[in-house]
Amino acid sequence: MIRVNFLFCIVLLFAMTLPMLVLYTTSTLGPLLSSDLHFDSSLLGYLIMSSFGLAAVLSLWAGAIVDYLGSRYTLLMLFSSVGLAFTLIATVESFYSLLVAAAICGIAQALANPVTNLLIAQQVPPEQKAGIVGLKQAGVQLAALIAGLMLPSIALQYGWRVAFGIVVPITIFFCLSVSFVTPKKHIRAQARLKLLPPNSLLQRLMIIQFLIGTSLSAFVTYLPTFAIQQNMALPLADTLIAVFGAVGMISRIVLTPMGAKLKDESLLLFMLAAIAAVSMAITMNATPDSHWQLWAGAIGVGLTAVATNAIAMSMLVRDPAFGPVTFSSSLVSVAFFAGFALGPPLFACVSIYFENLFASWNTLIGALILACVMAIVLAFARRHKVEHRRV
Predict the structure, then answer these.
(1) How far is it, in rounded angstroms, from Cα 48 to Cα 58?
(2) I want to staple 139 with a disulfide (CB 3.0 to 4.6 A). Which of 13, 161, 239, 260 is the partner?
(3) According to the model, what pLDDT value does residue 186 have?
(4) Cα 37 from Cα 264, distance rounded (Å)
């Protein structure tokens, strides 16, 4: 068993950070991309769809792939695909090439949760599991912090291609670090790749993650654009994503171990989805003369909806009732990434059809309300399962 040390935690953290950078860089650097490559900013949502759409499809087999290849080769594939994607993004000359480059990040996104959860399940003591899950899931929001604070300043001074290209040497460093934090030998859990149907508890958790993913991705993708429409300056609009990322990191690190102390984290998922819905309702009421709603929304959603995926992953690691950890992680990722892929184009299509953004915001709020309902359903199902075991 590899000791839980600093490098182990850093590799887990950036295994979650780097694949998600494409989402937040598309959000913060999107106006520069669309201006330089001459495409409409409404098409930014399709970049997210290409990446997370592929991630959703690959996630069907991600758990089986991790079991088959082992953590070492899977992590190498993860970091290498991010490096390739950002190399291509930094050199593309058209929107369609950008679409292909963004899609390659879907490979890393699909593998991130199953491989990191496997390492935690195998190598972290039970009393530390929830804390380490929260720490590594905070990597997703670290991506938002980097994309909101560091990359825009680099892009404005040296160009957006340099901002994307600077990620490549970081991926090379982590490729070299993999051998120090993974087992030398891997015992395959199964001889061949195969798919299994999710059990009833896992199905309910997948629905919750799909609905929250739909709302969250659209919110993150279009928050800076919406802020600019309310006469907020571009650097300040990008800072919204940085604030969102910072509070999101805090929420994942704090709420994940807190949720592990509860009898059932399902009720916590309910509360977080409900508060996120209220936060989005506040955001949609921002005006050119009043921007505090934008800050309140970024903080509110960052503190709540962001933490739900980390809590869900902690539930999978700690409770075998959801199924084998790599298998259940991959299917929850399927649902979450499918929501992420659907959210931005759905937001754009609804706004175009109704010719206003209020309908789009209400659609996101409706998805979160449905997630609240499903969280209650999951809580009753888990309680019933526990009572049935006692009998």
Answers:
(1) 15
(2) 13
(3) 62
(4) 49
